[in-house]
Write a structure and sequence with these properties.
The complex is a heterodimer of chains A (158) and B (114). Chain A is α+β, with helices and mostly antiparallel strands and 158 residues long. Chain A has seven helices and seven strands, in the order H-E-H-E-H-E-H-E-E-H-E-E-H-H. Classes of the chains: A alpha+beta (158), B mainly alpha (114).
Chain lengths: 158, 114
C-alpha cells in the first residue's frame, strides 16, 4: 500500500499503530495503516491518484466490508474538508488523518520525522515523541493502555 | 508481566501514565496518596480495580488532574474489525500469526536491550 503512495510521489508521514511498530515498540500493532499527508492541493491530487490505484473506498462500520464509494468521488476539496478519512483499499485499511489529535498536521509532524527501512521501502515515520503527544491528546482508552509502554520504549531508546 | 506490556486496564494505564509523567516510583506515589505500594502495584498490573475516587486520589497525588469526557463512540476499530472478519479465514490466520511474530520479536529486542 505505502509502496503505491511512494510511487505516486505522495508526501506523507506514517503515524499511529503502524508507526509504533516501525519504531519497534513491543506493543500489539493495529491492523490498519495511518498516514498524515501534506495538505497542499498538488499532493492531494497525487494521493487521490494512489488511492484510485488502490481502489480506496470509505470504510463505514455496519456497511459493506468492501467499503462504499465516496459520493462525488475523491477530490482534493473532499480531503481538505475532512479531519480524517477511514478507507478500505485493495491492500487493507488505510486511515488518512489530515489533523491528528494534538498536532498541527503534516508540517508539524514532518519536522521531527525519521526514515525507517521496511520491506525495501524507505518510509517517513512520525517521531515517537509526536506519536506519544498525539495519543496523550486523544486520550482514548486504547491510547491510555499503550502510553506507559511507549514512554518506557522512548526512555530506553535515549 | 513485563513493564513494556500495554497496561491491562484503563485504570492501570491512567495510574501508570500519571506516575510516569510525575517521575515518581510506585512507592513515592503510594506515600503521596496515603496508600500502600502493594495496592498501587495491584492497580497498575490490573490485579485490582480502583474506585473512581481512589483513581482521582492517585492522579492528584501525582500533581495531576483527571478529566472525564463523554463523546460519541469512535467507530474506527469496529470498521477495521469488520474488514478483517471479511477476509478468508486462512489469510486472517496468517495476519494474526504475523502480528504475534512481530510482537514477539519486538519484546525480545526490548529484553535484549536493543
Amino acid at each position: 500500500m505505502l509502496e503505491v503512495l511512494l510511487r505516486h510521489d505522495v508526501t506523507f508521514v506514517v503515524i499511529g499503530g503502524f508507526a509504533i511498530e516501525l519504531h519497534e515498540a513491543p506493543v500489539v500493532p493495529t491492523r490498519d495503516v495511518d498516514i498524515t499527508p501534506s495538505g497542499d492541493r498538488t499532493n492531494l491530487v497525487r494521493l487521490i491518484g494512489a488511492l484510485n490505484e488502490l481502489k480506496g473506498r470509505l470504510r463505514v462500520p455496519g456497511g459493506p466490508a468492501a467499503g462504499v464509494a465516496v459520493p462525488g468521488g475523491l477530490t482534493p476539496e473532499f480531503l481538505q474538508a475532512m479531519v480524517s478519512v477511514a478507507l478500505v483499499t485493495a491492500a487493507g485499511p488505510l486511515d488518512i488523518a489530515l489533523l491528528p489529535e494534538g498536532t498541527e498536521g503534516y508540517d508539524d509532524l514532518a519536522r521531527s520525522q525519521s526514515h525507517i527501512e521496511y520491506q525495501n521501502l524507505r518510509l517517513p515515520v512520525a517521531s515517537l515523541d509526536d506519536i506519544i503527544r498525539s495519543k496523550e491528546a486523544a486520550g482514548r482508552e486504547k491510547d491510555l493502555l499503550v502510553l506507559p509502554a511507549l514512554r518506557e520504549h522512548r526512555r530506553r531508546q535515549r | 508481566m513485563s513493564k513494556f506490556d500495554p497496561a491491562p486496564t484503563l485504570a492501570a494505564g491512567v495510574i501508570r501514565s500519571a506516575r510516569q509523567k510525575a517521575g515518581l516510583t510506585q512507592r513515592e506515589l503510594a506515600e503521596a496518596a496515603g496508600i500502600s505500594q502493594q495496592v498501587v502495584s495491584a492497580y497498575e498490573t490490573g490485579r485490582r480495580e480502583p474506585t473512581l475516587p481512589s483513581l482521582l486520589r492517585l492522579v492528584r497525588a501525582a500533581g495531576l488532574d483527571l478529566r472525564l469526557r463523554i463523546e460519541p463512540l469512535d467507530p474506527h476499530d469496529a470498521g477495521v474489525a469488520q474488514y478483517l472478519e471479511s477476509l478468508p479465514p486462512g489469510l486472517r490466520a496468517d495476519l494474526e500469526e504475523a502480528t504475534r511474530h512481530r510482537v514477539r520479536e519486538a519484546r525480545l529486542r526490548a529484553i535484549r536491550g536493543r
